[in-house]
Amino acid sequence: MLTLSKRIAQIGDSPTLKINATARALKAAGKPVIHLGGGEPTYPAPQATVEAIIKKAQSRQIKYTPFSGTMELKQAVLHYTQRYYGRTFEPKNVLISAGAKQALFNFLMAVVEPGDEVVFPAPYWVSYPEMVKLAGGTPVIVRPTKGLQVTFEQMQNAVTPKTKIILLNSPCNPSGQIYSEDFVRRLVSLAEEKQIFLGMDDIYHQLVFDGAQTPNPCTYAKEGKNLVLLNGVSKLYGLTGLRIGWAVSGNTDLIAAMGKIQGQSTSCNSDLSECGAAAALEGNQDCIQDLCRVLKENRNILLEELSQIPFIRVEKPQGTFYSFVDFSHYNTDSNALAAYLLEKALVAVVPGAAFGAEGYLRISFCADKNAIIEGVRRIRWALDETAPNEIKIGDKIVTRN
Ligand SMILES: Cc1ncc(COP(=O)(O)O)c(C=O)c1O
Questions:
Q1: Is 232 in the pocket of ligand 1 (CB under 6 A)?
Q2: Cα–Cα dist 217/287, whole Å
Q3: What is the CATH number for 157?
Q4: Domain that holds residue 272
Q5: CA 3 to ligand 1 centroid distance, Å
Q6: Interatomic CA distance for residues 383 and 305, integer angstroms
Q7: pLDDT at site 127
Q8: Which among 354, 362, 357 is positioned nearest to 379, based on CA atoms?
Q9: What is the pLDDT of residues 255-303, one digit of tens each?
Q10: Which of 30, 73, 152, 309 is the most exposed place for a label (fewest CB within 10 A)?
């Protein structure tokens, strides 16, 4: 029988990838779409990456690499880990994967048994619940009682004897908020005491503003056998298309198990991509400062523009390139609201429901400044009855009513 697995029936499509596809299709059809829904920085690839890939391609040696990553890239990741976490690991502590996403997936597949619980706070990255289900586990979502962050006590209360993993993404996609030093310290201790894996999704850990710092879990980990650092080159260097990420852990059995899964699924990573990622990590790091400066300017422009829209609630993002804004005054159904804004105003944003928080919209500020200004201007026009009824979208004058 040509039936599909039960596994696939349980999981949904990625809403962010869907929005990207719709926005791309509208653009291709000639519509003046503004895309504030993306999770992809627009800045160009580091020059060192481009040169390394060209050099590698010109060698005409583009082959399979070791299943867990090339030694050159592992060493670059180890230098990165030493630089930013102050911990010295060895190559056997590192697995290179096709993005942080595959590193996380390998992690879940390596430890989750049917019925195991994986605890994480809302709002969460859209893929967490689906990836946990794919691995056979049960997502346990901890929801804030106020604002965009949960308390440590809420996390602690969510832990049961079935809890296998706690996941934390901070700064958080979609909220842009950073969990406090105290929260991270207590979470590290809790996970150690209960012998639960703690997966730190640190993909945005350096994209922070106003002198903020992302607490370093390694400062508090005693042995670190349960701690897994997940990261990659996608966001920091604008290299989403390389598909390179990694996991680092003091637990070499875990890293070996994750490598086994990778070896039997993708075999290994792209040879060209591994070269390019190593060059980004070992090259000039000024691009990170430059990026944070541009993102901070973009964030400030976004906040300024959003302040013109009445009845919304915004918490200033401390990092990432996302703001998560409460639009429930206009519509508590965020899917309907995002669809309306795309149709009426040709602005793509992501519904909060996808991140486990109804009534919110995620608005990215990794687009260029003019797109941010124009996009928010259109959102205001579409929602706020006190805004002028007419607006120019592309070369057409359109009316709201
Ligand atoms: C929180 C979070 N984790 C992981 C990823 C995956 O990144 P990568 O491109 O390295 O797979 C993303 C990408 O959007 C993300 O937002």
A1: yes
A2: 25
A3: 3.40.640.10
A4: 47-282
A5: 31
A6: 14
A7: 94
A8: 362
A9: 999 999 999 999 999 999 999 999 999 999 999 999 999 999 999 999 9
A10: 30
For 208, the 3-state DSSP assignment is strand
Residue 188 CA to ligand 1 center (angstroms) comes to: 22
**Residue 17: per-residue pLDDT:** 74
Mutate which of 73, 203, 242 for ligand 1? The one with the most ligand atoms within 8 Å of its CB, which is: 203
Same domain, 56 and 40: no
Using CA atoms, how far apart are residues 360 and 327, in angstroms rounded to an integer? 5
Q: What does the pLDDT average to over 173-178? A: 98
pLDDT at 43: 85
- Asked whether 101 lines ligand 1 (CB < 6 A), one says yes
pTM: 0.96
Per-residue pLDDT band at 19 (split at 50, 70, 90): confident
Reported residue count of the chain is 401
Residue 20 has pLDDT above 80, yes or no: no
- Of 17, 40, 80, 101, the residue with max ligand 1 atoms within 8 A of its CB, to mutate for a pocket test, comes to 101
Stretch (H or E) spanning 265: none
Closest residue by Cα to residue 156 from 142, 171, 170: 142
Residue 299 shares a structural domain with residue 262 = no
Residue 260 lies in a domain: yes
Q: Which residue's CA is minimally distant from atom 16 of ligand 1?
A: 173
Cβ(203) – ligand 1 distance below 6 Å:
yes
Q: Examine the pLDDT at 40 and tell me if it is beyond 80.
A: yes
Asked whether residue 364 is domain-assigned, the answer is: yes
Asked if residue 269 has its Cβ within 6 Å of ligand 1, the reply is: no
pLDDT of residue 24: 85
Does the CB atom of residue 169 touch ligand 1 within 6 A? Answer: yes
Domain end marker among 238, 259, 282? 282
pLDDT above 90: residue 14: no
> Which tens digits make up the pLDDT trace of 99-140?
999 999 999 999 999 999 999 999 999 999 999 999 999 999
Query: How close is the Cα of 159 to the center of ligand 1, in Å?
Result: 25
Q: What is the pLDDT of residues 46-67, one digit of tens each?
A: 999 999 999 999 999 999 999 9
Task: Say whether both 184 and 332 belong to one domain.
Answer: no
> Number of structural domains, the chain?
2
Can you spell out the DSSP letters for 95-159?
A: EEESHHHHHHHHHHHHH--TT-EEEEESS--THHHHHHHHTT-EEEEE--SSTT---HHHHHHH-
Question: 127 alpha carbon to ligand 1 midpoint, in Å?
Answer: 9
354: Cβ below 6 Å to ligand 1?
Answer: no
Residue identifier of the C-alpha nearest atom 7 of ligand 1: 100
Domain with 321 in it: what CATH number?
A: 3.90.1150.10
